[in-house]
Amino acid sequence: MKPCSVVVCGVGGQGVLLLARTLAEAAFIEGLDVVQSEIHGLAQRGGAVVAHVRFGSRVHSPLVDPYKADLLLSLEALEALRNRVYAGRKTSVVCNMLILPPPSAAAMRMKIPKLDEIKEAFAHAKLFEYVEAQRIAGEKGLPQGANMVVLGFSFGLGLLPLSEKGLLEAIKTVVPDRYIEKNIELFNVGRKVAESRK
After folding, report:
1. For residue range 60-84, what is the model confidence (pLDDT) as tens digits?
2. In what order do the strands lie in the sheet with 92-96?
3. Domain 4-99+112-197: CATH architecture, name and number where available
4. Contact 95, 131 (CB under 8 A)
5. Largest Cα–Cα distance in the chain?
6. What's the DSSP call for residue 126?
């Protein structure tokens, strides 16, 4: 299989790295060559976090080149905009419908883009879809589980060349035992939301 390049972004505490590791583990389970790279900002303080995951029959570089991502998964809408450089005409974008303005925004009177403006910035991309991952995760009792909603939603749209079995096995491997059942539930809810949009 040709390499699949995924960029995962968000802010510290949202589970960006857990989502990236789940993807990498699922690819590994399916016998694919996998490489991963992580960029930590002030992750503990809600700073930007970005992870690159590439997998396929044979993969060399862990980094995704500008405009070359097959999939951009964003757990926060402003971070999607910040990482727009990875989105080209063949890129599909899945974005959590959540805006977390930086702490300095109010003091500096920064204009925060609205959700529709962010979507418009990706007009050149192959696909852009919002999902209310934060709301769904909160209603299911695990607010920090929006990452699994985004993962399930992406799978439900057919954007991940990985099997459901591999993804679920990966969740069981990387998620702490006490959260496995809830994370799988959130994955399945995200998948069903996507399937209802087809």
Report:
1. 888 999 999 999 999 999 999 999 9
2. 33-40, 48-56, 4-11, 71-74, 92-96, 127-131
3. 3-Layer(aba) Sandwich (3.40)
4. yes
5. 50
6. S
